[in-house]
Design goal:
The protein is an alpha/beta fold. The strands form two sheets. Strands 1-3-2-4-5-6-7 form a seven-stranded mixed β-sheet, with helices on both faces. A five-stranded parallel β-sheet has the order 9-8-10-11-12. The protein has two domains: 165 residues, Rossmann fold, CATH 3.40.50; 148 residues, Rossmann fold (3-Layer(aba) Sandwich), CATH 3.40.50.2000. The N terminus is likely disordered. It is built from twelve helices and twelve strands.
Length: 345
């Protein structure tokens, strides 16, 4: 039985841990200057952009700062932006912090859950303080009424850009989702045909688990920023094909073609389906490895076709199509997308 003294010590420890966790959550976390970004895609043109004139606050909902989809946006190139903008400050701040609503004349970037949770009243407060408010919902739904109170809506996919433009609720800018830029240097083997699925297990049909040749690798929701490489990076070396079809996505949720971009980053190609409008648009309707639909039968048929044509001219055609995605794997290119956007504010 736990003694009263031991109970009090454990209880106090829990209180302290919760207290310091909350303090850390509410505190401003400032990014440190990083290194110059280099071009790895072969398409970048070196040019001088105007400096970013306003400090940037990346606002996240409590407990979501390290989510991979959030970190793979502005945060993963924040240190590179600081290299090119000597007077710039970039700070991560919780939506729960009262400090947020004291900021004036700043760029406020609301990450996806912060954009979902912030009230219209608080949005108006940010606007009244002469801040430039950007929402970056990525693959998260957002209350349409809120969009009338922001300066810019970022779209991370073509379908999302079209949706927001059709709504006509405000200024929309496409800034396509990139790869996890830490994957530079990870290259898949090219000697044997092998196919893997990397992602959230809740987003893949259960019946895909019985596809004999398909290897399913669960990836963490967290970006785990203290790691130099994602924990699944080593596994990616084993696959020449990534399955990028079959995702189960709710209505009004727009998924960028990140799986295909990651495949290109490590030197693999994608298996997609005609249900994946985003993927077909980016790779073109002539891409040779498009399954008829997301059914298990169609996916297996395409896996068989890919195995039969491995290293053939058809395979080389697919690799050539895949090169269109390469800029979204390049740290310099992605950094400059953000530089161009933010320097014009």
């Amino acid at each position: 039985m736990l003694s009263l003294v031991a109970f009090e010590m454990n209880f106090n420890k829990k209180v302290r841990n919760r207290f310091f966790a909350e303090i850390q959550e509410l505190s401003q976390v400032e990014y440190e200057i990083g290194a110059e970004a280099s071009c790895t895609c072969g398409t970048c043109v070196k040019q001088i952009f105007p400096q970013i004139k306003k400090d940037i606050f990346i606002v996240y909902a409590k407990g979501t700062r390290d989510l991979a989809s959030i970190q793979m946006r502005l945060p993963q190139v924040a240190r590179n932006l600081l290299y090119y903008n000597s007077k710039l400050r970039i700070i991560a701040l919780s939506l729960s912090s009262p400090e947020l609503f004291l900021k004036k004349d700043k760029i406020i970037l609301l990450t996806k859950f912060a954009a979902e949770l912030i009230s219209i009243k608080d949005l108006k407060t940010l606007a009244n303080n002469q801040n430039y408010v950007i929402v970056d919902p990525i693959d998260n739904p957002i209350q349409i009424d809120k969009l009338k109170n922001v300066n810019l809506i970022l779209a991370s996919s073509l379908n999302q850009e079209q949706f927001f433009n059709d709504l006509g609720v405000g200024s929309v800018k496409l800034l396509y989702h990139s790869s996890d830029l830490r994957l530079e240097g990870i290259k898949s083997q090219k000697d044997i045909f092998s196919i893997g699925y990397f992602g959230n297990l809740e987003r893949i049909p259960i019946e895909f688990g019985s596809i004999t040749e398909l290897n399913i690798v669960k990836t963490p929701l967290s970006y785990e920023p203290k790691r130099n490489l994602p924990r699944y990076a080593e596994a990616m070396k084993g696959f020449s094909v990534h399955l990028a079809a079959g995702s189960i996505v709710p209505d009004l949720v727009f998924k960028p073609f990140t799986k295909g971009i990651v495949a290109e980053h490590v030197g693999a190609i994608s298996l997609i389906s005609r249900n994946e409008k985003e993927a077909v648009t980016l790779l073109s309707s002539n891409y040779p490895y498009i399954a008829d639909d997301n059914s298990k039968k169609s996916i297996i048929e395409m896996i068989d076709f890919m195995r039969e044509t491995f290293k053939s001219t058809t395979w080389e055609l697919a690799k050539e199509s895949h090169k269109k995605l390469r800029p979204f794997t390049c740290r310099f290119y992605v950094t400059m997308l953000w530089q161009y956007l933010l320097s014009n504010i």
